[in-house]
Amino acid sequence: MEIPAQSNPKSVLTQLQDAQNQHDLEAFVACFDPNYQSEQPTHPDRAFGGREQVRRNWSAIFSSFSDFRSELIRAASMGDTVWAEWRWYGTRADGTPLDLRGVTIFGVRDDRITWGRLYMESVQERGAGIDASVKSMTKGSQQEG
Q1: What does pTM read for this prediction?
Q2: I want to staple 87 with a disulfide (CB 3.0 to 4.6 A). Which of 9, 53, 71, 145 is the partner?
């Protein structure tokens, strides 16, 4: 009796990244299950279902950023789930940089991404620093002196 091949979630990441860096929309979309479910937990209004929305999203990205690149920094998998740390970058038509960094968590079945949770955010190079960030986060809470 032949045992069916298991999905390799990390190999799907490699296919995904190769398609991103080659701006190959068809290869990119082929990485996703037709019933793919996407969530962005820090932006709940961006959730969607279906591979066709993936096509629309990435068609716009590839056509807007001729120099778009994807860097897979590190990845880990357990069973059918794969965690990946990314950097996505390029140059907008007006010359300003795109620089997103973050993590994706994907569920993989039959070598297709069936669900995703994306935590990708624009890099903020300059800010008020960690002390101001913590102060803003804790504003209104009681602190011991």
Answers
A1: 0.85
A2: 71
